[in-house]
Specification:
This protein has 265 residues and is α/β, with parallel strands linked by helices. It is 38% helix and 18% strand.
Length: 265
Amino acid sequence: MATFYTQFDTKMAISQTKKKASNLIFGARAVLETIQAGQTIEKVFLQRRHASTQAKELQPLLQQNSIPFGYVPVEKLNRLTRGNHQGVAAIVSPIAFPSLEVLVPTIFEQGRSPLLLVLDGVTDVHNVGAIARTAICMGVDALVVPIYGSASISGAAMKTSAGALATLPVCRVPNLTTALHYLQASGLTIVACDAEAPQLPQEIDFNLPTALVFGAEGRGIAPAHFHVATHRVRIPMRGPIASLNVSVAAGIVLYEAFRQRDILQ
């Protein structure tokens, strides 16, 4: 089933695309051949109520390859490009997205205890970039993000990450609940971070294979993902401010994981 971008998401994507015009391709055949060539696509815009044969061919291919797509008015496509877009435009990703099912076994085969960071609905590109920058410094093996409802790995995210996103693997998954169940079945402890949680980070053994889950500010972690969690932790705070920016919270918990793992090295 196709997922529709909100008007805000579309405006943000168009704004980012204008800044990185070299990442834009347009025309149904050009997009189709780019996908078939194996290039990583960030997202695809399809013209609403456009009935070309080639555009219709794209939808099952996009679903098969777990490529985000959404329907937009023709005016939006015209703002993206003045060329003959044929109702289709796409943004080529600046990075590749490795498969989670390949990455996790590879980490184990290397004799290491995986440490993954799962972002549930974090839509601010600057937060994603800041989290990636901290994550790579704290020994995180990969970020895991959902295809839909997550910030794009755009130029803004790359810049905020200070290059970390060019090095840190990012696994883009079609269903975050399924991905968490897979990680749990693979032997990872699922640790959900929540302000109302009963445990503190220092009570968790981060030397074990671990996946840390952080939710978006305001909405938090989805209930379905809480049910998968083995542990729930909170960051103790005092003062009138009841919450932390998600990138700051991630940095605090990640440092505890780093501290525990670094002691044994």
